[in-house]
Amino acid sequence: MSINTSTGEITPSTSTAGTYTVSYTIAALGGCSEVTTSTSVTITASPSSTISYTGSPFCKTLTTGQSVSQTGTTGGTYSSSPSSLSINASTGSITPATSTAGTYTVTYTIAASGGCLAISTTTSVTITTAPTATISYTGSPWCKTITTSRTVSRTGSSLGTYSASPAGLMISPSSGSINPSLSTTGTYTVSYTLAATGGCAAVVATATVTITAAPTATIGYVNSPYCTSITTAQSVSQTGTTGGVYSSSPSGLSINASTGAITPSTSIAGTYTVSYTIDASGGCAAVIKTTTVTITNCQGMIINNTISEHISPVEIEELALEEDSSSTLINQAIPMWKVSFDRNPFDESFSLSIENEIGSNLEVQIFNSSGLLLSTRYIRIEDLRDAEFGENIPSGVYFVLVKQGKNRETLRIIKH
Fold first, then answer.
1. SS3 of residue 290 by DSSP
2. Does residue 196 carry a pLDDT above 70?
3. Is pLDDT at 315 greater than 80 in this prediction?
4. Which pLDDT score is estimated for 313?
5. Residue 262 in contact with residue 296, Cβ under 8 Å?
């Protein structure tokens, strides 16, 4: 203890804390004995403390108490300002889930004692609200033909980034907008990610979007025109998207709505537009593809004393007509005399050849698919090798009637 022996003054700051006995002594004098008196003096240590909260800021999702880190004098009490922090006054433990989000000053107060004044020490602690978000895309699925961006509907925090899985979706990481035309068809999971912050874990909101391929198709009837004498169904040549429905205009064509097959014998002769309709689906508009088909009343149609039967692209009907009868039809093939084309179909022109030819000249007539005579040409048999036909007719289906003596043959040919 720091004491002045003359005056008895004590200096606590330079003394060691503790309890002391102070003696005052009067020496013996004038035959009197020495006199001593004493008293007790206590020096107390000044209280001190530090406090902190490791891990602050705390997410409001935490339901367990978050303890204080405290050094120095114990036994103080804890308080906060403002008052909406859920804190234990004795232990200093904080419960984020029952606190209001915000930043607080926590005070640890040690009351006055032992001659020492009360002291307070403070620290700062923050409670943060967990980020939330939802996303959705109105209108999905989208057709790949869409070239304008499709926007996202988002609620909650705006600080996240967008991504998609699997790869192939053209999406903006910052805005979440999607361009269907630049994306690969398929179904995707779009994720909107809010990074971990303020003691809160990362948050991921998801939505599903689908990009669909636009339906496509082509249809055609390669053997059109068809004669009404054909009783078997004639199938359509169809490529692309299946599952469409067939129809025709005007009415009168016997067509299967599911398969597109046509039955000429139960159809009315005429030219029809056949439509193949694929319904709207997957965000894509309906698609309609068309082609033209012709049904011809060939049976019984007499062309220059020759009956025109239905002939397929690889089939030849050979007919002969007796010279002394212009009205009696004789359905008798003459296999020894035969007409052939050098090419069928043809692009510019075609030539003819005769098997087992006779010496007389040829008459070659070309008719359109409706039986209208387009041209007549007489050819010497010796000039047939160099003769070309069909140069001046447009693309289409035609019948060629070749006559030599009593021989007659009608052939079907196509010009591209």
1. strand
2. yes
3. no
4. 32
5. no
Alpha carbon 414 to chain centroid, angstroms? 45
Dihedral sign computed on CA atoms, order 178, 184, 189, 191: negative
What phi and psi, each to the nearest 5 degrees, are found at residue 385? Answer: -60, -35
pLDDT at 304: 40
Distance CA 24, CA 19 (A): 17
Smallest CA-to-CA distance from 406 within 322, 310, 312 is with 322
CA 397: distance to chain centroid?
A: 46
Residues 6+ away with beta carbon under 8 Å from 139:
150, 283
Strand residues in 233-326 grouped as ranges (E): 237-240, 245-249, 270-278, 287-296, 302-303, 306-307, 317-320
| Average pLDDT, integer, range 159-174 | 97
pLDDT at 357: 79
- What is the DSSP secondary-structure string of 109-173? EE--BTTBPPEEEEEEEEEEPPP-EEEE-TT-SEETT--SPBPPEEEE-S--EEEEESTT--B-T
Q: Could you give the CA distance from residue 334 to residue 365 in angstroms, rounded to a whole number?
A: 20
Q: 282-312: per-residue pLDDT in tens?
A: 999 999 999 999 998 764 443 443 433 333 3
Question: How many other C-beta atoms lie within 10 A of the C-beta of residue 314?
Answer: 7
Report which of 222, 388, 394, 227 is spatially closest to residue 313, judged by C-alpha positions: 222
Note whether 58 and 125 are within 8 A (CB): yes
Give the whole-angstrom CA distance, residue 402 versus residue 362. 7
Q: What is the pLDDT of residue 214?
A: 94
Considering only the C-alpha atoms of the chain, give the largest distance between any 2 of them, rounded to a whole number of Å.
Answer: 195
What's the CA angle centered on 384, arms 321 and 358, to 5 degrees? Answer: 45
Three-class SS of residue 265? helix
**What is the DSSP-derived secondary structure letter of residue 196?**
P
Q: Which of 132-146, 317-331, 399-413 has the lowest mean pLDDT?
A: 317-331
Any alpha helices (H) in 32-115, and if so which ranges? none
Degrees, nearest 5: CA angle 149-152-153: 145
Extract the tokens encoding 139.
């209108």
pTM over 0.70: no
CA 358 to CA 381: how far, in whole Å? Answer: 8
Residues 6+ apart with CB under 8 A from 302: 308, 329
